[in-house]
Amino acid sequence: IVKDNTDIPEKNLQTKYDLVAVSNHTGGLTSGHYTAYSKNPQDGNWYSFDDDVVRQLNSDNNVVTKNAYILVYVQRTS
């Protein structure tokens, strides 16, 4: 348990993470539908995955919605 900031090494306070993927779920406990958003590390664009349909998103503004189920982050290297 961290009691105060003195328990955390200074280098860990500067750690940054980037969102790289989101898994979404719509529906209920017994049935539903999953979709996903993922950021392509080569071109920097976000893509939507819905069954066999993949499309590029115009912006990253709508990546995290009320249907977000799992968020995936990657630690920045610099």
TrEMBL record:
Q: Which InterPro entries match?
A: Papain-like_cys_pep_sf (IPR038765), Peptidase_C19_UCH (IPR001394), Ub_carboxyl-term_hydrolase (IPR050185), USP (IPR028889), USP_CS (IPR018200)
The chemistry this enzyme catalyses reads: Thiol-dependent hydrolysis of ester, thioester, amide, peptide and isopeptide bonds formed by the C-terminal Gly of ubiquitin (a 76-residue protein attached to proteins as an intracellular targeting signal)
Give the enzyme class: hydrolase
The molecular function GO annotations come to: cysteine-type deubiquitinase activity
Question: Where does the USP domain lie?
Answer: 1-76
A GO BP term, please? protein deubiquitination
Stated EC number for the protein is 3.4.19.12
Any one Pfam family here would be: UCH
Q: Do you know which Gene3D superfamilies this protein is assigned to?
A: Cysteine proteinases
At the top level, the lineage of the source is Eukaryota
Alphabetized PANTHER family for the sequence: UBIQUITIN CARBOXYL-TERMINAL HYDROLASE
Protein name per Swiss-Prot or TrEMBL: ubiquitinyl hydrolase 1
| Upper lineage | Eukaryota, Metazoa, Spiralia, Gnathifera, Rotifera
